[in-house]
Amino acid sequence: MTERYRTVLLFGAPGAGKGTQGKILGAIPGFYHFACGDVFRSIDIKSELGRIFYDYSSRGELVPDEVTVKMWAQNIRAHTILSDYKPNDDLMILDGIPRTVPQAKIMDQHIDVLKVVHLVCKDQEKMFERLRRRALKENRFDDADEKVIRRRWAVYEKETKPVLDHYPADRVVEVDSMGSPARVMHDILEIVEPIQTQHFKRFGEDD
Ligand code: ADP
Q1: Looking at the 3D structure of the chain, how many domains does it have?
Q2: Does 185 map to a domain?
Q3: Is the pLDDT of residue 75 over 60?
Q4: Looking at residue 130, what is its pLDDT?
Q5: Ligand 1 mean position, distance from CA 189 (Å)
Q6: Eight-state DSSP code of residue 158
């Protein structure tokens, strides 16, 4: 087995703020942020994969596991070749993948999950409110319809939440996602900074 990518998972329900926080983290040198939903949205809707994505996501359903993991693996390989992701320098921050236990199992061959940052939100209505606001701002068809939002939530509870139990309990850390964006970032950095520092030491960096 080739060496696995050293990875931190950003985990949470739709609307928990994974994307917002992931983008900020990804701007810090030494982190490579992969947001599965963003990559799917960037695919040409007229291509086969683009159509598959549209079919599932517009209903609030997940794209099938094999298609998803294959898309992820190809994308990461391409970015490794382009050198904007350098596995020895960069910690991979995965946002929105794995989203099912079968995805997590397939990906175990490729990733070494050092921590799972679980963005927790106790107030479901607040999350729905965030999704509705995002739909208006970002033109997202999957957030615009109340029925689709509720469907996505149900899929999260049934298919995605069990992913947390796939990893050893001591690797999963909860962060309250209802604070200000800076507060949430602060709490996430407290978790990932020591991992990055260790990663840099391991590969002989000193700053
Ligand atoms: P959110 O963070 O609001 O849940 P995303 O932007 O991450 O939304 O994902 C949008 C849609 O893309 C999902 O509803 C799903 O249809 C598809 N998708 C994203 N990631 C995955 C995944 N890992 N497995 C299957 N489908 C996915």
Answers
A1: 1
A2: yes
A3: yes
A4: 82
A5: 24
A6: I
**What pLDDT sits at residue 139?**
64
Contact 107, 162 (CB under 8 A): no
The closest-lying atom of ligand 1 relative to the alpha carbon of residue 72 is 23
Is the beta carbon of 95 within 6 A of some atom in ligand 1?
Answer: no
- The encoded tokens of residue 24 equal 């900020």
**Is 129 contained in some domain?**
yes
CA distance 159 to 14: 13
14 assigned to some structural domain: yes
Cα(159)–Cα(195) distance, rounded to whole angstroms? 28
Residue 59 is inside which H or E element, if any?
A: none
User: What SS3 state is found at 12?
Assistant: strand
Pick 204 or 125 by higher pLDDT: 125
The whole model's pTM is what?
A: 0.90
pLDDT at 51 over 90: yes
Residue 10 belongs to domain spanning: 5-35+92-198
Q: Are 76 and 34 in contact (CB under 8 A)?
A: yes
Mean pLDDT, all residues of the chain: 91
Please report whether residue 57 resides in a domain.
no
Q: Cα 111 to the chain's mean position, in Å? A: 13
Ligand 1 atom showing the smallest separation from residue 56 Cα: 16
Smallest CA separation from ligand 1 atom 9, residue:
37
CATH of the domain at 152: 3.40.50.300
